[in-house]
Amino acid sequence: MARNTAQLKLATDTRPFAPFEWMLALRYLRARRKEGFISVLAGFSFLGILLGVFTLITVMAVMNGFRKELFSKILGLNGHIIVNKVSDDFDNYDEVAKLLARMPGVKHAVPLIEGQAMASTPQQAVAGFVRGVREEGLKALPLVANNVRFGSLDNFDRQEGIAIGTRLANLCASRSATRSRWWPEGAVTPFGTAPRVKPYKVAAIFEMGMSEYDRTMIFMPLVEAQRYFNKGDTVDVLEVLIDDPEKAAEQVAAMKQAGIPSLHFADWRQRNESFFTVLESSAT
Questions:
Q1: Which of 38, 72, 106 corresponds to the end of one domain?
Q2: 132 contacts: CB under 8 Å, gap ≥ 6
Q3: Are residues 17 and 41 in the same domain?
Q4: Domain end residue (candidates: 52, 72, 92)
Q5: What residues in the chain have per-residue pLDDT under 70?
Q6: In Å, what is the CA distance from 41 to each residue of 29, 45, 55, 245?
Q7: Neighbouring residues of 149: CB distance < 8 A, sequence distance ≥ 6
Q8: One domain, residues 17 and 106
Q9: Which pLDDT value is given to residue 281?
């Protein structure tokens, strides 16, 4: 027992660049008088290896940091698992959301409507991507809820206001204007497709730190989005937030075994496959 304790203490006391390592390195870097040229070559080789390892560590650290930052933005806005209905309209979304939310490891199941729109002001019109979501679902996204710069997300369900990003607010809203018009695809008439025009008050302005999201994302109350996009009492998808995004594949397998018919599951890796593949190949 005493011998094992001594060995353990010796192992824990050994530090990087210990005296033995310095002795071993200097033994082969220093040369005798007749081997001076070999010593020069060894020095250049040592510097080359040092620079190579330093460059490799730096590049890996930058790529890992970039990967972590990018995925934190993606996972902070989007659900970890996307659930949609294959055959019929997704009208039983509340029932399915309650069943999924009771599964171990699941935090939230958020009903969602997605659509494209155009924001108009007297100065210009810009394109946007609309998401109809409930207040509890919007506040469950930390990238949005923790970065509201103006206004508030409180009572989001009981108003017709929308939440937009700072870049979109700068593009489409003047300082004195509080309303903007949004065009999704409207009803089909004998004279062609008539766009639907409706003014909306900007209730909140957020800044997520990604220019693509801050310039295009528009959040609208779920009930208002259902009326505006003629969805009735249906949604497009359910976004499921789980405790550990790295275990999304195992969570999808468990959801498939729950026996809920006509549902298709996709995790965040499948939805962002291009980003994930590039970053994983760069990291390795």
A1: 72
A2: 112, 113, 114, 115, 219, 220, 221, 222, 224, 225, 226, 228, 229, 235
A3: yes
A4: 72
A5: 1-17, 27-39, 66-67, 69-73, 121-123, 172-194, 272-284
A6: 9, 6, 21, 50
A7: 166, 205, 206, 207
A8: no
A9: 56
User: Domain for residue 284, yes or no?
Assistant: no
- Kindly report the pTM of this predicted structure: 0.69
| Three-class HEC string of the chain | CHHHHHHHHHHHHCCCCCHHHHHHHHHHHCCCHHHHHHHHHHHHHHHHHHHHHHHHHHHHHHHHHHHHHHHHHHHHHCCCEEEEECCCCECCHHHHHHHHHCCCCEEEEEEEEEEEEEEECCCCEEEEEEEEECHHHHHCCHHHHCCEEEECCCCHHHCCCEEEEHHHHHHHCCCCCCEEEECCCCEEECCEEECCCEEEEEEEEECCCCHHHHHHEEEEEHHHHHHHCCCCCCECEEEEEECCHHHHHHHHHHHHCCCCCCEEEEEHHHHCHHHHHHHHHHHC
Q: Which domain holds residue 239?
A: 80-269
List the structure tokens of 142.
Answer: 């930390």
Residues 58 and 91 in one domain: no
Residues 15 and 128 in one domain: no
